What does this fold into?
Amino acid sequence: MRLIAPALVAAFLSASPAAAFTAQNGLVVQPEGPDAFHIPWRGKAGPADFWCAAGDYAVRALRLPVTTMVFRASEPPRRSGEGVRFTLRAEQSATSSGLAFHWPGGGGITAGAAQALCENRINRR
It folds into this structure.
């Protein structure tokens, strides 16, 4: 029997679907370390859809308090077919959240506010 290199096993496990989280709106969240994650584009997804998935991931998968700030790391606008990267670190924040809301905070909102966007998205379907 042939042994598989530990680095190869680690790379496989980190890329496997088990490492991903499916948000309640169906978008997949891919962890990129302890403080960052990426949400790939899937069909007709707008800024609120990405934020819904980011908030849902922070609250349900990471088990963070709803008051935790989540920041958009990739600068808006998102190009067609691109996903959105998020971070929990304010210093890595984009200049804007990409949402049409007006409040101070630049590229971040609380995990609870982001997760609350799921309600509007799910009820519209």
